[in-house]
From TrEMBL:
<keyword id="KW-0274">FAD</keyword>
<keyword id="KW-0560">Oxidoreductase</keyword>
<dbReference type="GO" id="GO:0008734">
    <property type="term" value="F:L-aspartate oxidase activity"/>
</dbReference>
<dbReference type="InterPro" id="IPR005288">
    <property type="entry name" value="NadB"/>
</dbReference>
<dbReference type="Pfam" id="PF00890">
    <property type="entry name" value="FAD_binding_2"/>
</dbReference>
<dbReference type="InterPro" id="IPR003953">
    <property type="entry name" value="FAD-dep_OxRdtase_2_FAD-bd"/>
</dbReference>
<dbReference type="InterPro" id="IPR037099">
    <property type="entry name" value="Fum_R/Succ_DH_flav-like_C_sf"/>
</dbReference>
<comment type="pathway">
    <text>Cofactor biosynthesis; NAD(+) biosynthesis; iminoaspartate from L-aspartate (oxidase route): step 1/1.</text>
</comment>
<dbReference type="InterPro" id="IPR027477">
    <property type="entry name" value="Succ_DH/fumarate_Rdtase_cat_sf"/>
</dbReference>
<feature type="domain" description="Fumarate reductase/succinate dehydrogenase flavoprotein-like C-terminal">
    <location>
        <begin position="256"/>
        <end position="297"/>
    </location>
</feature>
<feature type="domain" description="FAD-dependent oxidoreductase 2 FAD-binding">
    <location>
        <begin position="4"/>
        <end position="177"/>
    </location>
</feature>
<keyword id="KW-0662">Pyridine nucleotide biosynthesis</keyword>
<protein>
    <recommendedName>
        <fullName>L-aspartate oxidase</fullName>
        <ecNumber>1.4.3.16</ecNumber>
    </recommendedName>
</protein>
<dbReference type="InterPro" id="IPR036188">
    <property type="entry name" value="FAD/NAD-bd_sf"/>
</dbReference>
<keyword id="KW-0285">Flavoprotein</keyword>
<dbReference type="GO" id="GO:0034628">
    <property type="term" value="P:'de novo' NAD+ biosynthetic process from L-aspartate"/>
</dbReference>
<dbReference type="Pfam" id="PF02910">
    <property type="entry name" value="Succ_DH_flav_C"/>
</dbReference>
Length: 339
């Protein structure tokens, strides 16, 4: 679903459509807050799909530096740590660069990265590579068991659209290939053993066509990138929920984005790829909620009710302060009159 973010290593059309289909069919979702950002995508200066600069380059000795040439983080730290460091450094106005000039025979060792850089006018042998974090992999998705069964009879899922729990909150590099290869085989064998007659007794009902609006997709990308990106906080997530809930019933982009925002808001901790600035610690016993279309809608409504209540309390407090100020002013005028 990286296509729902401003910058992603995924194809632009990867927008969580399978998740939306399953959710509208009644399936439950899990761990939607866990969106992994790769720390070193090529900074092309444009939005959309951006090329990946492999971690192997850092493993070979490349350093993460700013425009002054100063290193600002450990290049071999876990993805979430490096992504936060790169994002944070950029937020303070610095450029973020991957200096691979010390790697001998760069083109021979990394022909793919070398070709990508050359296509953008960069020669890694003599100059650092501009990099930025980009949405890369989603650990959450359709909640399934070890055989790929969702909560809807007859609906199966595997691969990145599914949430098996195998990746936890922060997938390790290349483990998705292992998961896809192993679970796909297992799911196929299980479906075959069930047989066509027992696969499902559920009949699909005609669905209303979903609205697609290119300008709305751009808005969703902006909302998720700003509110549900590398660093998050309660106010930003609440704002995202408010901005996404209005058309989630008829727009798949908004629905999937709302699931991410609601899940992230409900997870009051920092864990793996999910970092809450207002909740920097991990919960001792994490809660893994199962989200359905109904529970997402209700959670969004609760968020709106809470915001409305808070605004009313603020208004009441403001009125009380104004009354107090008027009373004090009247008393001071009376004192002046008596004097």
């Amino acid at each position: 679903l990286g296509g729902l973010y401003d910058a992603t290593t995924n194809p632009a059309g990867a927008v969580g459509s399978g998740i939306a289909l399953a959710l509208r069919a009644g399936a439950g979702l899990r761990d939607m807050a866990f969106v992994q950002f790769h720390p070193t995508a090529l900074d092309t200066g444009t939005a959309g799909q951006v090329p990946l600069v492999s971690e192997a380059v850092r493993g070979a000795g490349a350093r993460l530096v700013d425009e002054t040439g100063a290193a600002f983080t450990d290049p071999l730290a876990p993805r979430d740590v490096v992504a936060r460091a790169v994002y944070g450094h950029r937020q303070t106005g610095h450029r973020t660069l991957l200096d691979a000039t010390g790697i001998a025979d760069f083109g021979g060792r990394f022909p793919g990265v070398s070709a990508i850089c050359a296509a953008h006018g960069i020669d890694p042998r003599i100059e650092p590579i501009p990099v930025r974090p980009a949405a890369h992999y989603h650990m959450g998705g359709i909640a399934v068991d070890a055989d790929g069964r969702s909560t809807v009879p007859g609906l199966w899922a595997c691969g990145e659209v599914a949430c098996t729990g195998l990746h936890g909150a922060n997938r390790l590099a290349s483990n998705s290939l292992l998961e896809a290869a192993s679970t796909a085989r297992r799911v196929a064998h299980t479906i075959a053993s069930v047989g066509p007659g027992g696969a499902s007794s559920v009949r699909a009902e005609p669905a209303e066509p979903m609205a697609f609006c290119p300008t709305r997709r751009d808005e969703v990308r902006r909302i998720l990138s700003v509110r549900c990106g590398v660093l998050r906080d309660g106010d930003g997530l609440a704002a995202a929920v408010a901005q996404l809930r209005s058309d989630a019933a008829r727009n798949d982009d908004s629905l999937v984005a709302l699931a991410i925002a609601v899940s992230a808001y409900a997870r009051c901790e920092s864990r793996g790829a999910h970092t809450r600035l207002d909740f920097p610690d991990r919960e001792a016993v994490p809660v893994r909620r199962l989200w359905t279309a109904a529970s997402l809608t209700e959670a969004a409504r609760e968020r709106m009710r809470a915001d409305t209540t808070r605004e009313r309390m603020r208004a009441d407090t403001t009125r009380e302060r104004m009354r107090a100020d008027i009373t004090i002013e009247r008393m001071s005028h009376q004192d002046e009159f008596h004097v």
